[in-house]
């Protein structure tokens, strides 16, 4: 056990708790981006190349985005992580700075002090908590939006991961999400084709679940039981849990972000196939949907299994994925516009009073079924960019159709997780047997 005294210069807490301080940091984002835009116009007037000026502005905006969202942690960082899976939709000429900044948000953040960590452990596991470990490493192995992870050895010799929630995380989440909702239009520019406002609303609704590590531990136990012995997946078992601390078996592997950045084709295809199968099979196998699909939550173990290491965001689906979703997907794929329109209206997907034609709706939805039209589909950034451009073009027909459609509340989480998982597949540039996976696990599609 390392010394519990703070190291020289170490901060007591890495999570700013005062609302005014956090609000000021978040407010600096639109102000900073606006000032850089003005400066950019000045450089262009002096004759500098517009493309070079845009590149510099994009890089600096991305740098500030990471600095503010990453150091604040809480809801700001959680929002950044949620955005990161849509990085593939960013146009190529702007992609690299945002890609680098958003990828950092998946795992990087300043740690809290050893003293603060020990205080939380004493509150959650009791004052005799050191006796439950043969060794505890005070240096965090990973840091995320509302907690950090320490590597340790349990008293029985098992290597474990100890996730400790930041003090004040609840206050930070509430404050951040209120402020971020005010700036939702600004963030829309970072991820074209993604509707940011509902994403923020959903994060706010899930806040209490994210903060409850006891519920997270229960979810992880359910997944571990359902996938136990599966040669394709590894879910670390829960060793102990408390409201703000959860201890699980330690797992090692290659982070998905690393595979995205430099993995060979075979590894990227394997990771993508397993991610898709995990996403589609979980509602049928566990009656739960892992609803936090960003690369920081997944690793590829040395034996080829996909390891899932975070269950803070989980949606309950006691009846699995609704059968109607599979039926509508099949109808769109097969081009049956009239029957598709009937099902969409019956299930609340078309706004009251809209005058959409079945042909228009089919034209809008058909591109989303492209990955299911062949036995294997190549998910690419360019494909996702085309979808984002199509949906975000205010002068195009699909923009008008999209505004006339509605996403019922029971489908919101399913839609976002599917979109997020698809974003990761495009980042992986992977060839996936998506049709076979959907036929096996999505009710209503194969019938």
UniProtKB/TrEMBL annotation:
<dbReference type="InterPro" id="IPR034646">
    <property type="entry name" value="ADCK3_dom"/>
</dbReference>
<dbReference type="GO" id="GO:0004672">
    <property type="term" value="F:protein kinase activity"/>
</dbReference>
<dbReference type="InterPro" id="IPR011009">
    <property type="entry name" value="Kinase-like_dom_sf"/>
</dbReference>
<dbReference type="GO" id="GO:0005524">
    <property type="term" value="F:ATP binding"/>
</dbReference>
<dbReference type="Pfam" id="PF03109">
    <property type="entry name" value="ABC1"/>
</dbReference>
<feature type="domain" description="Protein kinase">
    <location>
        <begin position="135"/>
        <end position="447"/>
    </location>
</feature>
<keyword id="KW-0547">Nucleotide-binding</keyword>
<feature type="compositionally biased region" description="Basic and acidic residues">
    <location>
        <begin position="1"/>
        <end position="15"/>
    </location>
</feature>
<comment type="similarity">
    <text>Belongs to the protein kinase superfamily. ADCK protein kinase family.</text>
</comment>
<keyword id="KW-0808">Transferase</keyword>
<feature type="region of interest" description="Disordered">
    <location>
        <begin position="1"/>
        <end position="21"/>
    </location>
</feature>
<keyword id="KW-0067">ATP-binding</keyword>
<protein>
    <submittedName>
        <fullName>AarF/ABC1/UbiB kinase family protein</fullName>
    </submittedName>
</protein>
<keyword id="KW-0418">Kinase</keyword>
<dbReference type="InterPro" id="IPR051409">
    <property type="entry name" value="Atypical_kinase_ADCK"/>
</dbReference>
<dbReference type="InterPro" id="IPR004147">
    <property type="entry name" value="ABC1_dom"/>
</dbReference>
<dbReference type="InterPro" id="IPR000719">
    <property type="entry name" value="Prot_kinase_dom"/>
</dbReference>
């Amino acid at each position: 056990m390392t010394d519990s005294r703070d190291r020289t210069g170490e901060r007591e807490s890495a999570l700013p708790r005062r609302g005014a301080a956090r609000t000021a940091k978040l407010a600096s984002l639109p102000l900073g981006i606006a000032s850089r835009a003005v400066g950019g116009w000045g450089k262009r007037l002096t004759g500098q190349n517009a493309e070079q000026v845009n590149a510099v502005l994009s890089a600096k905006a991305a740098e500030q985005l990471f600095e503010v969202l990453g150091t604040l942690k809480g809801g700001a960082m959680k929002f950044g992580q949620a955005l990161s899976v849509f990085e593939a939709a960013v146009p190529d000429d702007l992609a690299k700075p945002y890609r680098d900044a958003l990828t950092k948000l998946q795992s990087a953040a300043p740690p809290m002090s050893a003293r603060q960590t020990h205080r939380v452990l004493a509150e959650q596991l009791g004052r005799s908590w050191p006796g439950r470990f043969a060794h505890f490493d005070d240096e965090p192995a990973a840091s995320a939006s509302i907690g950090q992870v320490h590597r340790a050895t349990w008293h029985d010799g098992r290597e474990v991961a100890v996730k400790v929630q930041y003090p004040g995380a609840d206050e930070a989440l509430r404050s951040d999400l209120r402020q971020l909702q005010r700036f939702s239009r600004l963030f829309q520019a970072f991820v074209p084709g993604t509707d940011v406002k509902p994403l923020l609303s959903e994060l706010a609704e899930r806040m209490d679940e994210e903060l409850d590590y006891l519920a997270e531990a229960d979810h992880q136990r359910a997944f571990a039981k359902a996938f136990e012995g599966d040669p394709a997946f590894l879910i670390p078992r829960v060793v102990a849990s408390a409201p703000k601390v959860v201890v699980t078996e330690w797992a090692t592997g290659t982070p998905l972000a690393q595979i995205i950045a430099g993995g060979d084709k075979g590894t990227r295809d394997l990771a993508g196939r397993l991610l898709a199968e995990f996403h589609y099979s979980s509602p049928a196998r566990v009656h739960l949907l892992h609803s936090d699909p960003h690369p920081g939550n997944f690793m590829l173990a040395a034996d080829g299994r996909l390891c899932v290491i975070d269950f803070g965001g989980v949606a309950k689906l006691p009846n699995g994925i609704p059968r109607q979703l599979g039926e509508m997907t099949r109808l769109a794929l097969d081009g049956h516009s009239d029957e598709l329109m009937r099902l969409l209206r019956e299930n609340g997907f078309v706004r009251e009073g809209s005058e959409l034609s079945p042909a228009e709706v089919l034209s809008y939805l058909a591109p989303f079924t492209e990955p299911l039209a062949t036995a294997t589909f190549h998910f690419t950034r360019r494909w996702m960019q085309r979808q984002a451009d199509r949906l975000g073009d205010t002068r195009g027909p699909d923009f008008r159709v999209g505004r006339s459609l509605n996403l019922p509340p029971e489908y919101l989480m399913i839609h976002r997780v599917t979109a997020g998982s698809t974003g990761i597949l495009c980042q992986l540039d992977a060839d996936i047997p998506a049709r076979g996976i959907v036929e096996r696990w999505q009710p209503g599609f194969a019938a």
